[in-house]
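Thread: "does anyone have the structure for this chain?"

Original post by V.I.:
We have the sequence but no experimental structure in hand. Need at least a predicted one for the grant figures.
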Amino acid sequence: MADPIGYSIKKASDVLNKHDIDILIASTPVNVFYTTGLPTLHVSPNPILYVLSNQYPNLSMVRRDGEESAIIWALYDSVEEFSWINPSEVFRINSIKAAIDTLLKKVEEWGLSEKTIGLESFMPRYQSEALQKKFPKAKFIDGDQAFLDMRLVKTEEEVKRIKKSTEIAEKAIQNCINNTREGMPDTELLQIARRTIVDEGAEGWDHLTMSIGPSDPEAPGLGIPVTPNDLVRFDFGAVWKGYISDVSRGVVIGEMPKKAKEAMDTMIQLQEYCVDNVKPGVNAKDLYDNAYRFLKSLKKRGFYLITGHSIGLECEEAHLFSAMGSMDILFEENMVLDIEVWMNVRGQGLVGIEDCYRITSSGCESLSRLDKDILIK
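Reply from O.Q.:
Generated one for you, tokens below.
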């Protein structure tokens, strides 16, 4: 049997007791992977469990004591290679009906038909409706926060995977920067990024965001050419054994736009302020308020974004602090977050920087290694 990656029976039990949940059911690929280790992600070496989940749902059930069971496709025969769940607690199904019947049967067998059942908000409706119809006396609650509470603080293995993912994303960025030349279409740069990520052993990429001057960073690959004196920005995330990174850097061919340079200098100061003040015990909401005040001491006007989002199995597991809202929680040791800051510059779009950090007992450890300044070629 495999060893757990991030999941801990004790942590799970503590979280379920905190939320007064008798059984927590994972139905999304990410949370099934987190609780079982089974390769249910779309970037698994062979994502067959993900691909066939519309016909053969993958589910995991975590009981109040942290013990688990799982429901998977009947023909998948490598459970013990990936999962730490006792094989006797892995139930095989060959249809949607069989999955639902098995789920309802086990809840009933465990004596939980009138207890508190936590469901993901993204659980397919046919699954949640079947549970609610079968167990009208049960109390159904949103289980999203319980999963988040389990996942926010990372294990050493999870940190190791995020570090490797970050290293690969940075190699892809560096290769793109090294190869950027005037007139080069963004399609070629994206090919370099994809090739590097795969050649470095990652399963794939989470995102390949890039912009040239004012082009839309969320929609690259239109053949837009690199133009002189325009910022070319790369924002990449690789996937290493299920875990994701998020790093951004830029390059200019020719002369650096003055306003972009000023904005970048300010954003680096702002990011470093956040890094210096993220420590265990500091409230995330207070950090954002203080960072915003610091920004206003540097720049009185403009459109800015300050974000610190937890990163791991998803690029944005949760926004710990941001303009969209900050969580009223304390930072903890071994949380991993991406700190990104941006400023809108006319003619260049968003100018800024983002890096991954691990919270240590004394502050932040950078998982990123690339120079922060925009490279000029």
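V.I.: this helps a lot. The chain has two domains: 9-151, 156-376.
O.Q.: and The domain at 156-376 is CATH 3.90.230.10 (Creatine Amidinohydrolase).
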